[in-house]
Amino acid sequence: MDALLNLSIERPYSTRFRERWQGSHREAAVDLRALTYISSVDDNLNCPICQCPFVRPVMTKCDHIFCGDCLNTALKTSLTCPVDRRPLSLEGDDSEFMEQPDGGNPDIRLLRRLRKGGLVMDVPNAILNMVDELRVKCPNSAAGCKTETTRCNIQGHVNKDCGYVKVPCPSERCNLKIRRKDLGPHCLHGTVTCDACETEMIEADLRVCAEDRA
Ligand SMILES: [Zn+2]
Ligand SMILES: [Zn+2]
Ligand SMILES: [Zn+2]
Ligand SMILES: [Zn+2]
Ligand SMILES: [Zn+2]
After folding, report:
1. What pLDDT is stored for residue 180 in this prediction?
2. Whole-angstrom Cα distance, residue 181 to residue 186?
């Protein structure tokens, strides 16, 4: 099935048509911190700042691990390790990287600079693998998706496979969206009356209505 899909993606349709048809356009980044984790998560895999399993983690020289974004944010107010308060600053003036009193954007090059100075480094691959392999529910589970997969596969599922992601209607004349699982050759945004509940709705919602009753 996957092989078939990949084959059809290679056909020389215009990108726009292909994207509409396949519904394989790029989705927004899944918020890994908002996911429901099915695996029980070892406490050592939770970031001490956001309390979620690490997202793109980094390790400090004092062996503490944080999500890169979490550490970066914490360093804007204090150039110390958020756990043990050991200094995380290099010689010279780091104040240019700190939060500006006028609310100006702190410099995101700080982590790179600390990395160069050996104060921040990559985490061991074993840790990355463990957070990648944590099992999560699809972010569209409330809408009905039953998919459970590893965290490193969830973005791919949402981008390519999740039937509950709303994708552009295949009709060039229609700017509405439709669940990927309901994609068909024509627009399903015309108004119809559902036989079962005798309510007017768009054609695409007939299936939703049937699923809700099931
Ligand atoms: Zn974090
Ligand atoms: Zn530390
Ligand atoms: Zn899904
Ligand atoms: Zn439509
Ligand atoms: Zn109905």
Report:
1. 93
2. 14
